[in-house]
């Protein structure tokens, strides 16, 4: 790739990409101010608070479930390795360990 | 407040956030590299980090990124992933309520798991000043933008990311984030419901609706898990690195 093509590529912004980023930014800022605005009027409690509390874990589980449980034994094994490492070691070590485990298990389980 | 007080408070904030920056560097480089593999340009990565500034939701967005991107789905997913901010903002409100209005709205833009947890930790001992809060927030913000951009510049060069297990990196990142979200037995049934619905939806439906459907299932089950742990326990439970930025 010629140098100026690379430079233009690095600085390119696609219209739809920008629209998606702007929409994500608006949604995210909304979540950041909404809680603050909410407690000025009402107290979040009971089922609603329990439900809100469950949201992050539920979303993260949904994201990883197909890869961790329905892709193959190497991926499921590496997921287990990652969680076990995360219980004791810094999270970054767990991420690196999980990636190494998936490479190793794919070779072993070919 | 005098200028010396203010710079002292700002410095205290910077020193408090420093250890967290190590994680931001690594997650930032990784995020940038993965985004580049999905075809985002370094400048697009910079813009996303500067405007969204929420690690977990950025990782999710890139994971489900298509060309052209699904704007509605991405916004909805960011909304769901970041819903925890609603609880965090409610817990933070008493400590920033008295600030000048502009600073309050700016402070909320910069609210992340890390500086939120560190702010509430300090709030137990002393008053939170805007100078301290922005001392936490600005290095985190600058560091996240810089490292994600760097990652995108160098990540585009990587050939065949699966060779290094990088196709598993998203899952590994989310698993570690998830592990730090574990709140004992009350987490079990919501997570099982979410996993079951997500796996089923993943095999039946196109695209990434499995994330929204699984998330909704887990949230519904979560509503019936007894009274919430908010605010004190939620505070300590998410004191770790549960979000990359």
Which range does the strand content of chain A fall in? under 5%
Largest interface: A-B, 75 and 108 residues
Structural class of chain B: mainly alpha
The oligomeric state of the chains shown is heterodimer
- Give the biggest beta sheet of chain B: none
Structural class by SSE content of chain A: mainly alpha
- Beta strands of chain B, count: 0
Q: Into which percent range does the helicity of residues of chain B fall? A: over 70%
Shape of chain B: globular
- Kindly provide the radius of gyration of chain A, computed on alpha-carbon positions and rounded to a whole number of angstroms: 21 Å
Order of helices and strands of chain A: HHHHH
Rg of chain B, rounded, reads 19 Å
* Spatial gap, N to C terminus of chain B: 30 Å
Number of strands of chain A: 0
pLDDT averaged over residues of chain B: 85
Share in helix of chain A: over 70%
Beta content of chain B: under 5%
